[in-house]
From TrEMBL:
This is QSOX2 oxidase. Residues 179-223 form the Sulfhydryl oxidase flavin adenine dinucleotide (FAD) binding domain. It comes from Tachuris rubrigastra. GO terms for molecular function: flavin-dependent sulfhydryl oxidase activity; protein disulfide isomerase activity. The gene is Qsox2. Coiled coil: none annotated. Residues 43-150 form the Sulfhydryl oxidase Trx-like domain. It comes from the Eukaryota.
Length: 224
């Protein structure tokens, strides 16, 4: 694990992923890294993961906003809220927060019968519990992504940093925006490189059916 903004040389910190070695365990451990990290110097792309108080939620009611606000009510040991927050960081027109179920009276006032539950505040200030949703991360995230106006953020082309003492008249190069639906020469070159220099290198010798397959592949490659 490498912390953001580390200035001194480090080989990283090693962590055991738990005895079960399950994906969920690793994911939860990484969420803990992010949350603990944010208390020091939070990486700019990392949203706040700490729970909000009931008073903070009340202040959002009956106020017009340009975005939706979703609040995942959950228990202290639940990771659903933080998972949904991270699922939605690439989407605009929605902000996701989490709140704990410690204030029982407040939950009763909002009509939240059980946790985890997802509560939605509309841009016009109206609010209410999202009903008929299974209390799972996948259902919460899918529903929020489907709201009108909620869409994936457009990634702006990256600009290369300006070189020092650059000659006059030289322009800053802007990276091309690649179309993911197309196949580029760089993809083909990368594939050939991996096949010939990595995959093929795992075989000390080629003979029989394997050798014939490789010869056929070279013949087809030469033709196309």
């Amino acid at each position: 694990y490498f912390k953001a903004f580390t200035k001194q040389f480090t080989t990283g910190e090693n962590y055991q992923a738990g005895a079960d070695r399950e994906l969920q365990t690793v994911r939860q451990m990484m969420i803990d890294f992010l949350q603990n990290h944010s208390q020091e110097v939070r990486p700019p792309a990392c949203p706040p993961l700490d729970p909000v108080w009931s008073s903070d939620i009340t202040s959002l009611f009956d106020k017009n906003s340009h975005h939706y606000t979703a609040i995942v009510f959950e228990s202290n040991s639940s990771y659903v809220g933080r998972e949904v927050i991270l699922d939605l960081i690439q989407y605009e027109n929605i902000v996701v927060r989490r709140a704990l179920n410690s204030d029982r009276a407040f939950l009763e006032k909002l009509g939240v019968p059980s946790v985890p539950s997802c509560y939605l505040i509309q841009p016009n200030g109206s609010h209410g519990l999202i009903n008929n949703l299974k209390p799972l991360r996948s259902f919460f995230s899918s529903y929020l992504k489907s709201l009108p106006g909620v869409r994936k953020k457009l990634l702006l082309p990256l600009q290369l940093p300006a070189q020092e003492n650059k000659e006059e008249g030289t322009e800053i190069k802007v990276w091309k925006e690649f179309d993911k639906t197309k196949l580029y020469m760089a993809d083909l070159e990368s594939g050939l490189h991996f096949l010939l220099r990595v995959e093929l290198a795992t075989h000390k010798t080629l003979e029989g059916a394997e050798l014939k397959t490789f010869k056929d592949f070279v013949t087809i490659s030469a033709k196309v």
